[in-house]
Amino acid sequence: MENPMIHIAMAKCMSEIGAVGKLGMNTDQKYKFRALADVYKSCQPVLAKNGVHFAPFNVLDYVCDKYDRETQYGVKYTFHVTMRVEHRFYASDGSYIPVVTIGEAIDFSDKASNKAMSASAKYALVQAFCLPEEDPEADADHSSPEVAAPKAAPKTSEVKQPAQDDEAKAKAAKVGDLALAYKATGDKTPIIEWASKQLGKTITSSKDLSLTEIDSLTTAAKNLGAKQ
């Protein structure tokens, strides 16, 4: 096809779509992000004006991992989805430009695939039109750690003890082992209720358990599972 219209239309769109700021806020990890709704809001009128149709064409790869994950509400069954999606930008003459992006998401219910699809669509638009960020300081790669001057090794007296985060990670790992061991028993009783009965005290979450108690419960669950 000689002089396909899509290249001309895409160039016009790129010249008219402005910057999209990171107006969304992740309340858990405390970082800003560009929401898909904001990207659509900036792109949709311009695409329509210039006769460009944007749509997902094919899911090239799809991976869904399922596992138990410790949360502030206890152990949750978690879905981790990664998909590679081909999107296409069409012009009225049928010419198109393919854009392949990867979407990744985690969810405790039935929204992981939806989130991954939304992420792939957002980055297809961001990369196709080189959407600028209003505040370059908000870019995680704005300050590259590779070019930073190396820090001097701390003196022995300045070496800090392992952070409490390490203990929290170790506890989370043990809780995960406990959840898997209990799941293998086939017992339908909620794990919190079972743990309370085993220890003879009321447990409301894994925060109420010490590492020793978690090890004890894991051993009990494995013994129970071996009898099944």
What would the average pLDDT be, to the nearest integer?
Answer: 81
Q: Percent range for helical residues?
A: 25-40%
Q: What is the ordering of alpha helices and beta strands?
A: HEEHEEEHHHH
Largest beta sheet, briefly?
3 strands, antiparallel
Our estimate of the beta-strand percent is 15-25%
Beta-strand segment tally: 5
Task: Explain this structure.
With 228 residues, this protein is of the alpha+beta class. The chain folds into 2 domains: 5-135, Enolase-like, domain 1; 166-226, no CATH class. The protein has helices spanning 5-16, 36-49, 112-128, 164-185, 191-199, 211-226; strands at residues 24-26, 31-33, 53-71, 74-90, 96-107. Helix 4 packs parallel to helix 6 (211-226). The longest helix is centred in the last third of the chain and has 22 residues, at 164-185.
